[in-house]
Amino acid sequence: MTEDASKPFILVVEDDEHISQILKFMLERQGYRVQLAADGMAARDAVEQAAELPALVLLDVMLPYLDGFEVIGIIRALPAWKQVPVVMLTAKTTERDIVRALDAGANDYVVKPFQPAELLARVRRYLRQP
User: Fold this and answer.
1) Other Cβ atoms closer than 10 A to 100
2) Assigned domain for 76 exists
3) CA atoms of 23 and 115, how far apart (whole Å)
4) Residue 2: inside a domain
5) Containing structural domain, residue 18
6) Domains held by the chain: number
7) What are 87's strand-pairing partners?
8) Contact of 21 with 49, CB cutoff 8 Å
9) Of 31, 53, 89, 109, whose CA is between 20 and 30 Å from 71?
10) Which run of H or of E encompasses 99?
11) What is the pLDDT of residues 46-78, one digit of tens each?
12) What's the burial of 76, exposed, middle or buried (CB within 10 Å: 0-12/13-18/19+)?
């Protein structure tokens, strides 16, 4: 791999090809390395087979095969992943969905359509070194 390993690595789980490409472009322009997973099973595989822990996960809720709630359950069940920040990115806007995501272990919840500058600010907040 020729990518600079010193750049933070972000796992983006998004089934909408257009949105995932926008996220990849935005994040790479900010200097992040990005891995895309297009559905819940691809996300599960990326988590279970990860050679490197991501600095952050951007996770859609409505996904084929396994939804975002199932994926965050998989993430939080793995001891090494417990401290990885997870930001849910979804069109689901009800209080019930937001509470469910936060209770499942999400660190934050961003509603689509998102504002790029706001999303990047949230990403930076979670990637700051203590």
Assistant:
1) 18
2) yes
3) 11
4) no
5) 9-127
6) 1
7) 58, 108
8) no
9) 31
10) helix 95-104
11) 999 999 999 999 999 999 999 999 999 999 999
12) middle
Q: Name the token pair of 32.
A: 């992040």
pLDDT band, very low/low/confident/very high, at 3 (cuts 50, 70, 90): low
Q: Quick check: is 119 in a domain? A: yes
CA distances from 93 to 12, 30, 45, 52, 57 (A): 20, 27, 28, 32, 19
Can you give the pLDDT at residue 5? 74
| Strand ordering across the sheet containing 33-37 | 33-37, 9-13, 56-60, 86-90, 108-111
Length of the chain in terms of residues written: 130
Q: 111 has which bridge partners?
A: 90
Residue 99 is assigned to a structural domain of this protein: yes
pTM of the model: 0.93
- Domain harbouring 46, CATH code: 3.40.50.2300
Residue ranges with strand state E in the chain: 9-13, 33-37, 56-60, 86-90, 108-111
